[in-house]
Specification:
two-stranded antiparallel sheet; 27% helix; nine-stranded mixed beta sheet; Sortase, Chain: A; alpha+beta
């Protein structure tokens, strides 16, 4: 008895071809994605190398930064009531200022407007300012294209005639350059060291000391980036809002006569980490 031949299913062959095509497409997509990320990582590494070299060149400038001990020429700014013993203002007032020689920095980049040093972080950079808030997002200190950008002052602010709120930005780089280490401020280890509650800002016109009163991270918004206020009421509401947002209680009095410095960077793709400080001491240069 002859065996019956089983007819081949043409649909089975078609399905097999489709599966192969699908797997090839998936493989190509994965290959392209891997290539893209390798390209990004290589570019990120090159940007970091360039930034590190620029930092090294800046730090090699002789006598760039020097401490200025507390003296009679230094002016206390908007002091609180002396009977308020819980306010550390009076202790921080005794701390030294920093004075920066801007001669070489201005030769390297005429956009230089200040130099900032933030305790408890690696932030120790010259600050630049452009005619918008986009240019230095992708430009290094020497103005070459760089994904790391640089530390820059909001274009709306005047460093020599302070607004109610002066804002400085920087990218939150994973290797902690620029404002990458600003994320430290929302960690208990940073808060537990009270030496971290001050920061220094030096400009060609004056040296200043600022006392931190609020730190937090928040979904991306623009409210805390307001520079001036149309009324005393809106100004006070702004201060009350940013004080209430703080994840720590700094027990520091703040009012509408205070000049505020705001530092802002990325906390994640959808959030920002923010530091607010008030001006407590200055000295003309």
């Amino acid at each position: 008895m002859k065996k019956r031949k089983v007819a081949k299913d043409p649909n089975k062959k078609t399905k097999s071809k489709k599966k192969k095509i699908i797997w090839i497409v998936i493989f190509l997509i994965c290959l392209c994605a891997a290539g893209f990320y390798i390209f990004k990582i290589v570019g990120w590494g090159k940007d970091n190398e360039k930034i590190d070299k620029l930092n090294d060149d800046i730090n090699k400038i002789e006598d760039l930064v020097e401490e200025v001990p507390n003296n009679e020429e230094q002016e206390a700014v908007n002091p609180p009531d002396k009977t308020n013993k819980s306010d550390d203002y009076w202790d921080y007032l005794k701390l030294p200022l920093i004075s920066v020689d801007f001669t070489e920095l201005l030769k390297k980049n005429a956009d230089t407007v200040a130099f900032i040093k933030v305790n408890g972080t690696t932030i120790n950079y010259p600050v630049v300012q452009a005619s918008d808030n986009d240019y230095y997002l992708n430009r290094a200190f020497d103005k070459s294209y760089n994904g790391a950008g640089w530390i820059f002052l909001d274009y709306r602010n005047n460093i020599n005639n302070l607004d109610d709120n002066t804002i400085i930005y920087g990218h939150g780089r994973l290797n902690t350059t620029m404002f990458g280490s600003l994320k430290n401020i929302v960690k208990n280890k940073w808060y537990e060291n009270t030496d971290n509650y001050v920061l220094n800002l030096s400009t060609p016109e004056e040296n200043t000391l600022w006392q931190v009163f609020s730190v937090y991270h928040i979904p991306t918004e623009t409210y805390y980036l307001t520079t001036t206020f149309g009324s005393e009421e809106s100004h006070k509401k702004f201060i009350d809002t940013i004080v209430s947002r703080s994840i720590y209680d700094f027990k520091t009095s703040v009012n509408t006569s205070d000049k505020i410095l705001t530092l802002s960077t990325c906390y994640s793709d959808t959030e920002r980490v923010v530091l607010h400080a008030k001006l407590i001491k200055k000295q003309a240069r």
